[in-house]
C-alpha cells in the first residue's frame, strides 16, 4: 500500500512486520499535515496479524522536522487545535496496536525527533544527528516533544538543545538516551527489522503491557504503580499463551537466556 508521502508493506516469515517508510526524500522527509494524518490513519487501521512495526525514512534522512514551507499563519486557537491534531496522531504511534521501532539515519530533527520519541525503540546508524532548532526559529515544539523527549534525555539537555541549537551526533545521541542501539552506517533498517522479528515473537499481552502499561506506571506514585503492576502481571500470566510458554521453560523446551 502506498499513499502520498507514505509507503506501507508487510514483511517477515508470516507477514507479521509492518514496514512504514516516509517517502518525501526531496524534502528530507519533512513532516506536513497530510503525512501526519496518514500515519494516524495507518496505526488506527493496522491490518490484523501485524505484531510489530518499523518506521524508516527514504533517502539520506529519517526526518528533518516540520515542513516550514507549508507552515500557515494561525491564531492562538487554530494553533492549539493544530498541535492537538499532531498529539493525537503520534499518540496512535506510541499507544497503538503494536510495538514500534524507528530506524534512524541522517537528520532526526525537530518534528522528526518528536516522531522518533513516540516510538518504543530507536536504532540509529552512524550518520544520524539530532537537533531541536525550534528555539532559533521563534517557535516551540508542538508534536509532543516537550513531554516525550525529556523522558529520554532529561529537561536540562532538551533545554540546552533548544536554547543553543546544540546538535548531537550519533555516538553522543546514543550515550544520552536518544537511541538504544547504534549500528554502522546503512544498517539501521536491518537491525530494526531484526528487533521487530524478535518482538513479534513475544506474547501479545506482554507487548501490550510494555507499550501501554509500563509508561503509565512510570508516571504514577509508587503505591499506585505497584498496584497497577500487580494487576497487569496477573492478567499477563493468566493468558493461555503465557501458561504454555512457562510450561515449555519448566519442561526444558524453551531456550535459556544466553549472553549475546
Question: How would you describe what is shown here?
Answer:
- With 260 residues, the chain is an alpha/beta fold.
- It folds into 2 domains: 199 residues, 2-enoyl-CoA Hydratase, Chain A, domain 1; 47 residues, Lyase 2-enoyl-coa Hydratase, Chain  A, domain 2, CATH 1.10.12.
- The chain has a 7-stranded mixed β-sheet with strand order 1-2-3-4-5-7-10, with helices on both faces. A 3-stranded mixed β-sheet has the order 6-8-9.
- The radius of gyration is 19 Å and the shape is globular.
Question: Can you give keywords for this protein?
Answer:
Lyase 2-enoyl-coa Hydratase, Chain  A, domain 2; 16% strand; 10 helices; alpha/beta; 7-stranded mixed beta sheet; 2-enoyl-CoA Hydratase, Chain A, domain 1; 10 strands; 260 residues; 47% helix
Architecture blueprint of SSEs:
Blueprint: E1 2-3, E2 6-11, E3 17-22, H1 33-44, E4 52-57, H2 76-94, E5 100-104, E6 107-109, H3 111-118, E7 121-125, E8 129-131, H4 145-153, H5 155-164, E9 168-169, H6 170-176, E10 181-183, H7 188-200, H8 204-219, H9 222-238, H10 240-250
Parallel strand pairs: 3-4, 4-5, 5-7, 6-8, 7-10
Antiparallel strand pairs: 1-2, 2-3, 8-9
Helix pairs in contact: 1-2, 3-4, 4-5, 8-9
Q: What can be said about this structure in brief?
A:
With 260 residues, this protein is of the alpha/beta class. The protein contains 10 helices and 10 strands.
What is the class of the largest domain in the CATH system?
Answer: Alpha Beta
> What is the number of beta strands?
10
Mean pLDDT: 92
What is the percent of helical residues? 40-55%
Per DSSP, the total helix count is 10
Q: Spell out the helices and strands N to C.
A: EEEHEHEEHEEHHEHEHHHH
CATH topology title of the largest domain: 2-enoyl-CoA Hydratase, Chain A, domain 1
What kind of assembly state do the chains in view correspond to?
single chain
Number of domains: 2
Gross morphology: globular
User: CATH superfamily assignment of the largest domain?
Assistant: 2-enoyl-CoA Hydratase, Chain A, domain 1
SS strand fraction: 15-25%
User: Any idea what the radius of gyration is?
Assistant: 19 Å
Largest sheet: 7 strands, mixed
Q: Could you say what the CATH architecture of the largest domain is?
A: Alpha-Beta Complex
Low-confidence stretches: none
Strand order, main sheet: write it out: 1-2-3-4-5-7-10
Please give the alpha-carbon distance between the first and last residues.
36 Å
Class by SSE composition: alpha/beta
Amino acid at each position: 500500500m502506498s499513499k502520498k508521502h507514505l509507503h506501507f508493506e508487510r514483511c517477515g516469515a508470516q507477514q507479521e512486520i509492518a514496514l512504514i517508510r516516509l517517502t518525501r526524500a526531496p524534502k528530507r522527509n519533512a513532516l506536513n499535515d497530510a503525512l501526519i494524518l496518514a500515519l494516524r490513519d495507518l496505526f488506527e487501521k493496522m491490518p490484523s496479524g501485524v505484531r510489530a512495526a518499523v518506521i524508516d525514512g527514504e533517502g539520506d534522512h529519517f526526518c528533518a522536522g516540520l515542513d516550514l514551507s507549508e507552515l500557515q499563519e494561525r491564531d492562538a486557537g487554530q494553533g492549539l487545535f493544530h498541535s492537538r491534531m499532531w498529539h493525537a496522531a503520534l499518540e496512535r504511534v506510541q499507544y497503538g496496536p503494536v510495538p514500534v521501532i524507528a530506524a534512524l539515519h541522517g537528520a532526526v530533527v525537530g518534528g522528526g525527533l518528536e516522531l522518533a520519541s513516540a516510538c518504543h525503540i530507536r536504532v540509529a546508524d552512524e550518520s544520524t544527528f539530532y537537533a531541536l532548532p525550534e528555539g532559533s526559529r521563534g517557535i516551540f515544539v508542538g508534536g509532543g516533544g516537550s513531554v516525550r523527549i525529556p523522558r529520554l534525555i532529561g529537561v536540562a539537555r532538551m533545554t540546552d538543545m533548544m536554547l543553543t541549537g546544540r546538535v548531537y551526533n550519533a555516538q553522543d545521541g546514543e550515550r544520552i538516551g536518544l537511541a538504544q542501539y547504534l549500528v554502522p552506517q546503512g544498517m539501521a533498517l536491518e537491525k530494526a527489522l531484526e528487533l521487530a522479528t524478535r518482538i513479534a515473537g513475544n506474547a501479545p499481552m506482554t507487548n501490550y503491557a510494555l507499550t501501554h502499561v509500563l509508561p503509565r506506571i512510570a508516571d504514577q506514585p509508587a503505591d499506585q504503580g505497584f498496584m497497577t503492576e500487580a494487576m497487569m502481571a496477573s492478567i499477563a500470566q493468566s493468558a493461555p499463551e503465557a501458561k504454555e510458554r512457562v510450561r515449555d521453560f519448566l519442561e526444558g523446551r524453551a531456550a535459556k537466556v544466553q549472553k549475546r
